[in-house]
Write a structure and sequence with these properties.
mainly alpha, Glycolipid_transfer_prot_dom, ceramide 1-phosphate binding, ceramide 1-phosphate transfer activity, Glycolipid transfer protein domain-containing protein, Glycolipid transfer protein, GLTP, transport
């Protein structure tokens, strides 16, 4: 057997940072998408969690797709929202990113 259901995520995470150590938006979102089939394995009880994760991924992807060169680094989305005083909004990319990172670091209870 070649690894576990987490192997693609662990391999993908190696490519999320640039050589300068910045988080690359597209690569980060690709890794986030890899967790969705894993959540499916837990059954229907996790459907809401999967929906929330997918919604946050879509929110960030939509923003990224408006200007991939501008939003190549995740920090650029956050900084724009901080500068515009929109980072704390429930539909902000910053909020979605915080949710995704808190889920991926196992803080969800």
């Amino acid at each position: 057997m070649d690894g576990t259901v987490f192997t693609p995520c662990l391999e993908g995470i190696k490519h999320v940072k640039s050589h300068q150590g910045e988080m690359l938006t597209n690569q980060f979102l690709d890794v986030c998408k890899l967790i969705l089939p894993v959540i499916d394995k837990f059954g229907a009880a996790m459907a809401l969690v999967k929906s929330d994760i997918g919604g946050n991924i879509s929110r960030l992807e939509n923003k990224y797709s408006t200007n991939p060169s501008k939003y190549n680094i995740l920090y650029s989305m956050v900084q724009e929202e901080v500068d515009g005083n929109t980072a704390k909004g429930s539909s902000s990319c910053t909020n979605g990113l915080l949710w995704l990172t808190s889920f991926s670091t196992n803080k969800m209870k």
